[in-house]
Write a structure and sequence with these properties.
The complex is a heterodimer. Chain A is α/β, with parallel strands linked by helices. Helices cover 42% and strands 13% of the residues of chain A. Chain A has a single domain, classed as Alpha-Beta Barrel (TIM Barrel), CATH 3.20.20.210. Helices cover 54% and strands 13% of the residues of chain B. In chain B, strands 2-1-3-4-5 form a five-stranded parallel beta sheet, with helices on both faces.
Chain lengths: 352, 228
């Protein structure tokens, strides 16, 4: 690995402070199966979790909260495609969720204060500091604000309620987002936290899920409040959403985000994006999950990473990442090819 | 001054379910043929909705509301269309489902709504559909088009298995295969020998319509009609 671990490298990229020693690696999620295969044993505690991220070359360890905060077990359907835990896929009813009336809103078992404990790994911010190697920090991630609201209603019900029951929609955003704001603020106070990351899909390949006006009314004000917290604390503020975000880039910048992930191809052209907003946003991602990471060869992955480094990395403000996550169906050799290409070709100044 | 058909189209586009039901009944009471109301009222309205969505002028909620409004009119028209003794024909017949291992519903449902709005007959096999059921449905329903939906990189690979299963029983050439879903691409569709790829619901319907352009004569009720 080139350059050792240094959160300062990532921070420099995120805050657009020129070229660090090399391009950083970044991901929101790396599937448990990939971690286990990489480390060669189950990664099930804080020590092995930190060991994975550090030995894989990431300058941070993520602690993500929010994936299951508002889960209602009554609405889940499980589809088992294999015997391993990671193959048990949980599904939500897309049409109707547990809340479609004000009465159901009032009677929903809303969670008490949410702790700073990762939803999936169980890693707690209270315990992680002693395990972090020198130079490594935590990125606090808060997931599913907009997503949680429509999951609670079912997507179709939510869409129709934007017109038929705006009061319920407003109450849900207030309830969900105030809970998330609370945990966001608590996470941001930890000394080991070096940045904060919102993970909240508002778009898909075809465009925004709802109108920009609806996003400005219901969700961007909450992102802005979180952005203010980051600004006060000097923390880089990162945003993840899949899909085509071109219609709301100014809004995203206006919320105070320093960086944007995962720059989903083909709808988000990272080269054009760098030209358009590269002076305002660090770009993270664009290494295709489908191709080359899932269906390509290690050589395909290396070529894609080299191409992105050449096109986007000069001047800083770029981190290599998948275009979504490193899912369990990504061959380990492809995940390694992505990392190794960064170590081999990502040293500044880029000369490819 | 807008005609009643123009008002009906506007009501569909605006997602006004109540107005669509009222106006549909009004034009029928005034003597307009059900097929004309469908072809010159509801279908062009959903065409406009599709174009507006492609142009990012409206989004999924507005499309769903328009589809809901369209259904309110279709519910009134369908008995009359059915009563035409087969003289009115759907633009085409589409069997559609989400492939095995995938439980995503809403993308497929949007395509179905827009196909209906374009005059197609749709047979929804649902979600998590085994390849054998797709094959059985092709043999039984003899559709013009098979629509396959998937939303995960893993499950989209099942589409290739479905196409191979059609080839094995010798019915591949009897149907056009249209694929769609977030992780798909034209390159993937070409790789698995699908006939078409719809990056969005509206484009999928355009492709279906282009395939049927030479196949689907639509017969109106004799006599009354309004051309605008």
């Amino acid at each position: 690995m080139t350059g050792g671990l240094d959160f300062g490298r990532l921070e420099q990229a995120l805050l657009l402070r020129g070229e660090p020693d090399r391009v950083p690696l970044a991901e929101v999620t790396i599937d448990q199966a990939i971690k286990d295969a990489f480390v060669g044993r189950p990664v099930r505690d804080v020590e092995s979790e930190v060991a994975f991220w550090s030995s894989a070359g990431y300058d941070y360890v993520p602690v993500k909260i929010g994936l299951h905060t508002f889960d209602d077990p009554r609405r889940k359907r499980e589809n088992v495609v294999g015997e391993e835990d990671y193959q048990r896929r949980e599904w939500l009813d897309e049409l109707k969720g547990p809340i479609s009336t004000l009465e159901e809103f009032e009677s929903f078992p809303w969670p008490e204060e949410v702790g700073c404990v990762d939803d999936v790994t169980g890693v707690s911010l209270d315990e992680i500091s002693e395990y972090l190697p020198p130079g490594v920090k935590v990125i606090g991630m808060v997931a599913k604000l907009f997503n949680a609201v429509w999951e609670l209603m079912g997507f179709e019900t939510f869409c129709l309620a934007l017109y038929d029951n705006p009061e319920l929609v407003s109450r849900l955003f207030e309830r969900v987002c105030s809970t998330h704001l609370g945990v966001f603020e608590r996470m941001s106070r930890y000394a080991c936290v070096g940045a904060m990351w919102i993970v909240d899909d508002i778009a898909y390949g075809g465009g925004l899920m709802v109108s920009p006006e609806a996003l400005r009314r219901y969700i961007f004000p909450w992102y802005r409040r979180m952005g203010e917290i980051c600004r006060e604390r000097g923390l880089p503020f990162i945003y993840h959403s899949d899909g085509d975000l071109r219609g709301v880039l100014d809004d995203i910048i206006g919320c105070g985000f320093n960086a944007l992930h995962p720059i989903e191809p083909p709808v988000m052209d990272i080269v054009r994006l760098k030209e358009a907003v590269g002076d305002k946003l660090c770009l993270m991602g664009n290494i295709g999950l489908d191709f080359p990471l899932s269906r390509g060869t290690p050589h395909d992955v290396e070529q894609e990473v080299k191409e992105r480094l050449k096109q986007v990395a000069p001047g800083g403000g770029y981190c290599v990442s998948s275009s979504n996550s490193v899912a369990h169906w990504v061959p380990l050799e492809n995940f390694n090819a992505m990392r190794e290409a960064v170590f081999k070709y990502g040293r500044y100044p880029i000369s490819i | 001054m807008l005609t009643v058909l123009q008002k009906l189209r506007n009501a569909v586009i605006m997602g006004d379910t109540t107005a669509v039901a009222q106006l549909t009944q009004q034009v029928l009471d005034e003597g307009l043929a059900a097929s004309t109301v469908f072809e010159q009222g509801l279908i062009p309205a959903m065409d406009t909705v599709g174009q507006q969505m492609k142009a990012n002028e409206i989004y999924i909620p507005e499309v769903l509301r328009a589809a809901q409004a369209m259904r309110a009119g279709l519910v009134i028209l369908e008995p009359r269309l059915t009563a035409m003794d087969g003289r009115w024909q759907a633009r085409g017949r589409v069997v559609i489902g989400t492939v095995s291992g995938d439980l995503h519903d809403i993308g497929k449902n949007m395509v179905i709504m827009m196909l209906k709005g374009a005059g197609f007959e749709t047979i929804d096999l649902g979600i998590n559909v085994p390849r054998e059921r797709f094959v059985a449905s092709i043999l039984e329903e003899k559709p013009d088009i098979l629509g396959l939906s998937a939303l995960l990189t893993t499950t989209m690979m099942e589409m290739e298995n479905v196409i191979e299963a059609l080839e094995k029983v010798g019915c591949r050439d009897s149907v056009k295969v249209l694929v769609g879903g977030a992780p798909l691409s034209q390159a993937f569709a070409d790789q698995i020998d699908a006939d078409g790829y719809g990056p969005d619901a509206s484009t999928g319907v355009d492709i279906a319509r282009s395939w049927m352009a030479e196949k689907a004569p639509v017969v109106s009720e004799p006599g009354s009609g309004e051309n605008e």
